[in-house]
Task: structure prediction
Amino acid sequence: MFIATFTVPKATCGAVLSIHCAELGTTGVREAVLMAEIGWQNWIRPHPYAPEISRLPYHAGDDPSWDARFAGHPLSRARAWAHHVVRTASVDPRFAALPPFQLPTAEAQSAPPPEPPVEVGSTLTTVLLGLPIGGYLPLWLSNQDVAFVRLVEPESLWTRLGMGSVGRSPLAENWYRETALYSLGSGTLLLPGRYRDDRGGIPVQQVAVAPVSPEEAAAAATEDAVLETFRWLGQVALQASQRDEAVAVTPGGHQMYGRPVVLLKVVDRTSLVLARPAPVGAPLWRDNIPADYEPTADDQWSMVAPASEETMKAGGLLTRFAVSTWSVRPTELALSFGRDHPGGDAAR
Result:
């Protein structure tokens, strides 16, 4: 539904003229076509009407230049009606003569206008998300380049990341990683939704962040903070199993690694945690891996148990112990979501 409204305020009353344009048939066609042409990285822009005060992101598909191409779209119809009203409407002289509406004085405005989500002219970069640890989040720009930010309100992100509602980027066949839009060095991260809303658009959550150095993020990754993250991973794996998805923990970046990897999934009502390579010597794992085990080039090891909420959550701690045997720091890891085993079929 798109709404265009004209409001003529007076001191004690006002007049409103409005049109409500519903989207009929298949929704989201305009956005889907234009996003493919414009590119996701260029999709979200500062709002053109009030970029200095607007807290609402604006996507490129709403630009008026596309209206002629999508004349039947409700946004195009609403704008066409608005242009017609501007050209043809008139105000009754008796109403026009009423005492005018007065704007609040500067003294009455107690709060300053909010800061814009991104500066006008900023370039938004698509980043893939790493593991949130100790209130910090890695943002992968490529396989080698990573930026770190401190989350102003970490709790607001814990409830969304890994729960299936955040937009994703493809890595390999059937494997995806959660994504965001970020203007490097800015204080706002834009977190797109995975699904369209009732209007056919893609909802975007603004997350307040502060850019930090890799050293600061690494210092925050204490053992307690890392354990908290992997306990959260157990909850992520539980939620993923309810969507019939698997979770893979691998080094971060813009590609999917078949090794090293820890895979968490449910197979035939069995909770499976598969590590490649086998985490020889890791706590809990060493109780199941024979002392004389000799790793091979393709070795892996699985821990299985009847699928339950408890065993899925325990998979987070098993993963923590497995990745401790890798030459990869926790701040260099990321989550991926899919249905098959990355790099092989052993977990099917």
Summary: The chain has a mean pLDDT of 84. The chain has two domains: 2-108, 125-338.
